[in-house]
Design brief:
- It comes from Nonomuraea maritima.
- This protein is an alpha+beta fold and 662 residues long.
- Among the domains are: 191 residues, Roll (Ubiquitin-like (UB roll)); 110 residues, Ubiquitin-like (UB roll), CATH 3.10.20.
- The chain is built from 14 helices and 37 strands.
- Strands 31, 32, 34, 35 and 36 form a five-stranded antiparallel sheet that branches. A four-stranded antiparallel sheet has the order 22-30-29-23. A three-stranded mixed sheet has the order 2-1-6, with helices on one face.
- The longest helix has 28 residues.
- The chain starts with 107 loop residues before the first helix and ends with a strand.
Length: 662
């Protein structure tokens, strides 16, 4: 401190009192101390008394001539045990020192704030950690799936609860309405089921986060159930619905009846919206069944009536004279009747019609005039000799470029001019090589089936023509056979004629009518051969010429027959048709001793109605009641049943009695 002197020890309270001294030693003589008082309180005995000086006594001093002691200092507090009192400074001269400046003590509130913050943080941590630990390892509390509470359960417990509650709720059938048509669709038929694993996978589980803990304590988490979808099965179910209601747009077309071109005007159709139908069926399943309405979308043809009229004029000119084919020095003519039988005018995709010429069909009767038969190629095949199949190897040869010939003839017919076409010959490899069908285990009869029909009808010609196209075809192991893919569209130029056939619930005259008889025969041959049924559709009305519950419809390209060769060996198809029957035989390696078709009783009979039609194309019918029947296939090996297929249910509609008045 400024002006502060040296700090001295506290003043001895007895220092200012003169004590008697000895004349010899000049030491104070202490006499008459009170009992219990030690001389040590006066300090060391050899200390010189600083308060005594020679000379006269100060005026007014005490008698004896001693100097007056200085004023006593302020009393010091008596020391307390265990507490040391700091010494007070003593200043010799000058003004008293300034007091030291001390920092003020912080308020009590400021000292409490850090402690309170730590306490709040600790409480908040405990408020999260404690419930989080209790909730960990289970589905977050408050979690619900379509109203079913699975919160607090383990994943296994939640899965069992969802299967027991939602599984039963979401297995109800869906009624599908398309116009006036109604169908009952079971979830398993549409490939729909509750995806329990995917549904629980949406739910928070494990160690929850702070927001999840808060939501679990104060609210709920609502989840939508997930649906497992077998896409191929749902697509198949939608296609089955579509087949019954689709009316594809008919493009304009020109074909021939004899030499007279016949134009068919384009007709607008209506098609089921497949994508929308699948979505609505899924939604209805999620809603626990009920009814869903599906819609049809307009199908607009690309061609116009004016384009058809123009094509009729071109077609008439196209068959006005023959076309000459030349191959070197050899020449043959395609007569107008041959041209007409293999020529059509179809949509070109741009609103008009263009000629399409079937060169392969047209060459069938004249190819030998251009190429020797012995030089023509031959596909590998099998012939039945002595009741056993024998391999006939393939042979390369010389032939006509059919694709090039078709384009050249179409160019002549579209542009007019010279009606002579140069045919190009070249080396032609067979379509079916020997290596493709040899060594396939085709060695014995596997199955055979025959159906009959009335003699002398136009439909018989179509049955015979299709049997010719099937004969000799080989189905390799694992391959799926498709009747529509093999035969293709039924055309007049391919030898098919108009005949009656049921089309979308009504009798109609179409080219190729009656070929459902071939499809039914093929279906039963594959059925009793033990092969897998991939796709077939029963006919609309029951007819006695087909086996009940085992018939198959056919309509190119919408309705097909498919079966899969699920054996380890190839299958040879041999087909033969007479004027009253058709037989299809399958050759390969026999796998089953016996294949049995077990039929249920007929049930749910529905009476037929009566209707009258003045349509010139009307076909009279006698009427047939509808009913339902189940058929189950059982396969035997060594006399024992080794396989039993699920029952197949067929619902026949009642066929009305139709009276034609036109």
């Amino acid at each position: 401190m400024p002006n502060a002197g040296p700090i001295e020890s506290p003043t001895d309270p007895f220092a200012s009192v003169p004590l008697p001294t000895s004349a010899k030693s000049r030491k104070p003589r202490i006499e008459g101390l009170p009992p219990g008082v030690s001389r040590d309180i006066f300090g060391p005995q050899g200390r010189q008394d600083q308060g005594t000086a020679a000379g006269p006594s100060a005026p007014g001093g005490p008698p004896g001539g001693g100097t007056l002691p200085p004023p006593p200092p302020p009393a010091q507090p008596w020391p307390m045990a265990g507490k040391e009192t700091p010494p007070r400074p003593v200043f010799s001269d000058g003004p008293p020192p300034e007091r030291p400046v001390y920092e003020p003590e912080p308020p009590r509130r400021r000292r409490l704030l850090p402690g309170l913050a730590v306490l709040v943080l600790l409480l908040a941590t405990l408020a999260y950690v404690v419930p989080a630990v209790l909730m960990s390892g289970s589905v977050l509390r408050g979690t619900r799936v379509a109203g079913v509470d699975i919160g607090g359960l383990t994943v296994t417990q939640a899965a069992e609860k969802l299967r027991d509650t939602l599984g039963a709720e979401l297995s109800k059938p869906v009624t599908v309405e398309i116009g006036k048509r109604k169908e009952i669709l079971q979830p398993e038929e549409a490939g729909l089921e509750l995806d329990v694993v995917g549904t629980i996978g949406q739910a928070p589980s494990g160690f929850p986060t702070p927001p999840q803990v808060w939501r679990a304590l104060t609210g709920t988490t609502d989840l939508q159930p997930k649906i497992g979808v077998d896409v191929s099965q749902l697509t198949r179910a939608v296609e089955d619905l579509a087949e019954a209601v689709d009316k594809p747009a008919q493009e304009g077309r020109v074909s021939f009846t004899g030499l007279e071109p016949k134009g068919r005007k384009p007709v607008e159709g209506a098609m089921l919206d497949r994508e929308e139908a699948a979505s609505r069926i899924r939604d209805a399943f999620l809603s626990g069944g009920g009814t869903v309405e599906l819609t049809l979308r307009p199908a607009v043809p690309a061609t116009t009536p004016e384009a058809v009229a123009d094509a009729v004029k071109q077609a008439r000119q196209a068959v006005s004279a023959p076309i000459t084919l030349s191959a070197g020095v050899r020449q043959v003519q395609l007569q107008p009747a041959v041209l007409a039988a293999h020529l059509t005018y179809v949509s070109d995709g741009e609103g008009g019609l263009a000629p399409r010429f079937d060169a392969k069909g047209a060459l069938a009767g004249v190819q030998n005039g251009l190429v020797d038969a012995a030089r023509q190629p031959r596909d590998a095949t099998y012939e039945i000799v002595g009741g056993r199949p024998v391999l006939v190897p393939a042979r390369a040869g010389q032939g006509i470029d059919e694709a090039r010939l078709a384009k050249d003839v179409e160019k002549v017919l579209a542009g007019g001019g010279a009606r002579t076409v140069a045919v190009r010959l070249g080396a032609v490899t067979p379509t079916v090589q020997t290596s493709q069908i040899e060594g396939l285990g085709i060695k014995e009869l596997v199955s055979s089936f025959t159906t009959v029909f009335d003699c002398c009808q136009e439909r018989g010609k179509n049955i015979q023509r299709m049997a010719q196209e099937l004969d000799g075809h080989v189905v390799r192991p694992g391959e799926t056979f498709s009747l529509n893919d093999l035969v293709g569209e039924w055309k007049v130029e391919d030898g098919y004629v108009e005949a009656t056939q049921i089309v979308r619930g009504r009798m109609a005259n179409i080219v190729g009518g009656g070929v459902a008889q071939v499809a039914t025969t093929m279906y039963n041959a594959a059925y009793f051969g033990g092969f897998d049924d991939v796709e077939h559709r029963p006919v609309d009305y029951y007819t006695s010429r087909y086996p009940v519950g085992r018939d198959a419809d056919l309509l190119y390209p919408d309705i097909d027959l498919k079966w899969r060769n699920d054996s380890e060996n190839g299958v040879l198809i041999k087909a033969e048709a007479t004027g009253t029957s058709v037989t299809i035989t399958l050759w390969g390696t026999k796998r089953y001793d016996k294949v049995e078709a077990v039929e249920s009783d007929r049930r749910d009979f529905t009476p037929f109605g009566n209707e009258t039609s003045s349509d010139p194309a009307c076909v009279a019918t006698t009427g047939q009641q509808g009913f339902t029947i189940d058929v189950t296939r059982v396969l035997y090996r060594n006399g024992q049943p080794v396989k039993k297929d699920p029952k197949y249910t067929t619902k026949y509609a009642p066929q009305p009695r139709t009276t034609c008045t036109g």
